Amino acid sequence: MQGGQVPRVFLRLLMIFHILHELIFCEPQESRHLLLFVSPLFIHERGSPETLRDPRGFAVKFYTREVSYTDLYCLLSGFEGNFDLVGNNFPVFFIRDGMKFPDMVHALKPNPKSHIQENWRILDFFSHHPESLHMFTFLFDDVGVPQDYRHMEGSGVNTYTLINKSGKAHYVKFHWKPTCGVKCLLEEEAIKVGGSNHSHATKDLSDSIAAGNYPEWKLFIQTIDPDHEDRFDFDPFDVTKTWPEDILPLQPVGRLVLNKNIDNFFAENEQLAFCPAIVVPGLPANAPKCAHHNHHHEGFMNFMHRDEEVNYFSSRFDPVCHAERFPMPPSVLRGKRDRCIIEKENNFKQPGERYRSWAPDRQERFICRWVEALLDPRVTHEILSIWISYWSQANKSLGQKIATRLNVRPSI
Ligand SMILES: *[C@@H]1O[C@H](CO)[C@@H](O)[C@H](O)[C@H]1NC(C)=O
Ligand SMILES: *[C@@H]1O[C@H](CO)[C@@H](O)[C@H](O)[C@H]1NC(C)=O
Ligand SMILES: *[C@@H]1O[C@H](CO)[C@@H](O)[C@H](O)[C@H]1NC(C)=O
């Protein structure tokens, strides 16, 4: 994630997790220190205008309490300390196979020869990944340029496995919804705002907090019982899919209010690190606030003076103790470990549904943005045909409209 002039603010989570459902969030009405990090841009470089079309990062660091168990029992971490919920402003991601992440980033980044971001490279790479269509129905939609950070959604994107105190696992997705609603900048507005105030969104966030107009998000979860994971036409762990809200409703679990600006950008923002898998040691902003940690403290930009001789866990020389044990559900696994395409790819249904859910003018803007991207002279006829075929499979008339405007005869 390109942390640009990353606005980051301390915040308190007020009245966190007041509904419990049967799972994770246990202590109601509790005020908690949290940290929110939104990165202006994912692809573009630091200092780029905040009006560019780009996914935005949305990550929250929960400092767990100094008590014997955490609110969140997370299989992925298994630790008490920090829980870092790292995601972005769209609920899905471009690709399914994490091994392709570096290639994806290279395609999105500037051409290594010219240092110019070029659509033909992006469209070439993603033509091999029809699962990216869903993410493109967000990026090339109006929400691809949020008005500012207050009017932007956040999402955990990944599916988490959370275990409650009885040892029952649930699959969970996290969603942050701004209470002031979602707002976007259309092309002409974006040019105007970006042309005069290139970090307008950072300023908006900071000004709003300073004025006491605290930005606020509601936190929702969706849950799937692991026993039901085969009931859907998608794989619940596929990051290119959303969980339909009509069958897996959003359940409100908390509220997040940004009520304090940072005091020092470098110390509290530039050095902020998120790790979805484990406690992040070392730096004050990243260090857990509770007694549980794993002693690991070396690493990039670590400036704290330390003289401990024990940097491993467990140790009889150090009082740090294990968090209270909680039950982990056992599972019997049998089968073949393989690297292959998942069974339920279903790459076109959700992008098609999303397109059809829009009003005609919004569909038209989406088509225009695609036509413009595909007009890059280095997009070959082959690549063009593949994209037209993909969009046709999502929605026939969408593919046809793009083909007609590009003067291409669709091959399917
Ligand atoms: C854990 O989840 C199961 C199944 O939803 C439920 O029956 C049980 O009461 C839950 N336990 C706790 C402590 O919430
Ligand atoms: C740019 O920022 C200034 C100062 O906050 C504001 O007065 C002005 O309206 C902004 N311009 C645009 C085009 O948003
Ligand atoms: C494609 O989208 C249009 C516009 O929303 C809709 O009228 C049409 O029924 C869709 N076509 C298919 C095949 O789903």
TrEMBL record:
Coiled coil: none annotated. Its EC number is 1.11.1.6. Pfam families: Catalase (PF00199), Catalase-rel (PF06628). It is an enzyme of class 1 (oxidoreductase). It is found in: Peroxisome. The keyword Metal-binding applies. One of its GO terms (cellular component) is plasma membrane. One of its GO terms (biological process) is hydrogen peroxide catabolic process. InterPro entries: Catalase, Catalase_core, Catalase_immune_responsive, Catalase_sf. GO terms for molecular function: catalase activity; heme binding; metal ion binding. Keywords: Heme, Hydrogen peroxide, Iron, Metal-binding, Oxidoreductase, Peroxidase, Peroxisome, Signal. The keyword Oxidoreductase applies. Residues 2-321 form the Catalase core domain. Residues 1-26 form the signal peptide. PANTHER family: CATALASE, CATALASE-2. This is catalase.
